[in-house]
Specification:
Elements: E1 5-9, H1 13-25, E2 29-33, H2 36-45, E3 50-54, H3 62-72, E4 77-82, H4 87-95, E5 100-103, H5 108-142, H6 150-163, E6 169-172, H7 179-188, E7 197-201, H8 207-215, H9 232-235, E8 240-244, H10 251-263, E9 265-266, E10 275-276, E11 280-285, H11 289-294, H12 300-306, E12 309-312, H13 323-338, E13 344-345, H14 347-355, H15 361-375, E14 380-381, H16 387-390, H17 393-398, H18 405-417, H19 428-447, H20 452-459, H21 463-472
Parallel strand pairs: 1-2, 1-3, 3-4, 4-5, 6-11, 6-12, 7-8, 8-11, 13-14
Antiparallel strand pairs: 9-10
Helix pairs in contact: 2-3, 6-7, 13-15, 19-20, 20-21
The structure holds adenosine-5'-triphosphate and magnesium ion.
Length: 480
């Protein structure tokens, strides 16, 4: 953060020497350029925080350098030095976007003051950027990855292993299995945290626009290119780019992506310069890329370059044990968003949700829960709130016919209660429990042929308690 790398451009050797000595002493890393053209090449290849440029230089003036350098790196700070204290130069420089100017000769104190100012400016702008990003990230971090199945645990381990390096990752999985979520998790857990995460969906953008989206374009590069546009790779500089649905990328673009991966540089459409970019690539697809490679629809070299570390996400139907936690998580989140108390699922609803095959994976589950929460007026969600699933015949059969006792009691109870407004106050709890206790005790006594000692044993209650219950609940004992 702040100010680290400085480029000094001046044709006067003594000036370069003085400046580099003073700046290095202060701990900055300093590069030198003897003219404007050389300076521009260096700006292109390195990422400087500040350029200090003399205005009068052979070949390219400092003002031209200022224009071109800022075109390449819009956020680059440039301080110009001018020998003549002419108003004109100073105004011109500021107008063109210089951060400040110094008139030569100057005391090192003047330089110190300017460096101090630049450093603060960079800190502030970095801090604002960081804070914004942090806020976004915090929101994203809250979007936890849920699930403890063996395949999810494997996934967490892999994320941990790859996050620390710049290794290219290819995430494969059916639609809705969480590919984007995982891509973000990799970014958030990497050293690039706080820097941009830029996602681009290669399938959603028309093929002839995709290239300029990715690499940017110069003004006039094609009809309609009225302005210079920075591409996603540039936007993602120092961060991570997420190439989503990479299986849909046209072959000619695949070659260009391969080049970025190998050279770490890009060229805007219509541009002649190569721009260095420092970007980590994470790609995803729900298609079988290997099959595409066999059919020559996907470049084999790119496939291997991307697939350094493969992550394959398991479909939800193959890790059903994760469903209850996901349900709880989505219930909590949806209700929090709506600012209502967290709704619950009845046991038979949970039964339904855990047995459904979820062709749309986690996304389908998430959407079903959102819909049910919004549409149901009840606190407890019942299977009828999930009609989209229950109408699905195949799943309907997949639901076991055998319901748990609790589910049956629950359904019965709810239908016989029919709204608490109508109930008498006072003793509902006992009255309801009696209705469960009575059949239970009756059943056990029947099976033990009226033997109260055995019945108490089976029920796990004291014999005296049983006797008391029998009289209270007025249970008739049938002895055959
Ligand atoms: N394990 C998980 N825990 C919590 N939420 C998840 C999980 N997996 C997916 N989700 C959620 O499900 C939704 C779909 O996930 P995501 O967009 O990452 O899927 P995808 O694989 O990229 O799908 P597609 O191929 O359709 O683009 C998102 O809202 C995501 O937050
Ligand atoms: Mg996706």
């Amino acid at each position: 953060m702040g100010l680290h790398r400085i480029l000094v451009a001046d044709d006067e050797e003594s000036m370069r020497w003085v400046l580099s000595k003073a700046l290095r002493k202060k701990g900055y890393s300093v590069d030198l350029a003897a003219d404007g053209n050389q300076a521009l090449r260096q700006v292109q290849e390195q990422s400087y925080d500040l350029v200090i440029a003399d205005i009068k230089m052979p070949g390219m003036t400092g003002l031209e350098l200022l224009d071109k350098a800022r075109e390449l790196r819009p956020d680059l700070l440039v301080v110009v030095m001018t020998a003549e204290a002419s108003m004109k130069n100073a105004v011109e420089a500021m107008k063109r976007g210089a951060y400040d100017y110094i008139t030569k000769p100057f005391d090192l104190e003047v330089l110190d003051a300017i460096i101090e100012k630049v450093s603060r400016a960079r800190d502030v702008s970095n801090q604002v950027a960081m804070l914004k990003q942090e806020l976004k990230d915090r929101y994203l971090v809250e979007k936890n990855i849920i699930g403890n199945s063996a395949s999810m645990q494997e996934l967490y381990k892999t994320i941990g292993k790859v996050a620390g390096s710049d290794i290219t990752v290819l995430i494969q999985g059916e639609s809705g299995t969480g590919k984007e979520l995982v891509a973000r998790a990799i970014h958030l857990n990497s050293s690039r945290f706080g820097k941009p995460f830029v996602a681009i969906n290669c399938a959603a953008i028309p093929k002839d626009l995709l290239e300029s989206e990715l690499f940017g374009s110069e003004r006039g590069a094609f009809t309609g290119a009225i302005e210079r546009k920075t591409g996603k790779f540039e936007q993602a500089n120092h961060g991570t780019i997420f190439l989503d649905e990479i299986g849909d990328m046209p072959l000619d673009l695949q070659a260009k992506i391969l080049r970025v991966l190998q050279e770490q540089e890009i060229t805007r459409i219509g541009g002649s310069q190569n721009l260095a970019v420092d970007v980590r690539v994470v790609a995803a697809t729900n298609q079988d890329l290997q099959e595409h490679v066999r059919n020559r629809e996907f470049r084999e070299d790119l496939y291997y370059r991307l697939n350094v570390v493969p992550i394959n996400l398991t479909p939800l139907r193959e890790r059903k044990e994760d469903i209850p936690a996901l349900v709880a998580y989505f219930l909590e989140h949806t209700c929090a968003e709506l600012e209502i108390p967290t709704k619950q699922c009845s046991p038979d609803t949970m039964q339904l949700l855990t047995t459904h095959s979820w062709p749309g994976n986690v996304r389908e589950l998430e959407n079903s829960i959102k819909r049910a929460v919004i549409l149901s007026s009840d606190h407890l969600l019942s299977p009828s709130d999930f009609t989209a699933i229950t109408n699905h015949r195949e799943t309907f059969h997949a639901v076991p016919q055998e319901q748990s006792l609790e589910a049956i009691v629950e359904t019965k109870l709810r239908s016989s209660m029919n709204g608490i407004e109508k109930l008498d106050k006072g003793d509902i709890y006992n009255r309801v429990l009696e209705q469960v206790e009575r059949p239970l005790i009756r059943y056990v006594l029947e099976k033990t042929r009226g033997n109260q000692v055995r019945a108490a044993d089976i029920l796990g209650i004291n014999r005296n308690t049983l006797r008391k219950k029998i009289s209270e609940l007025q249970i008739a004992i049938k002895k055959d």
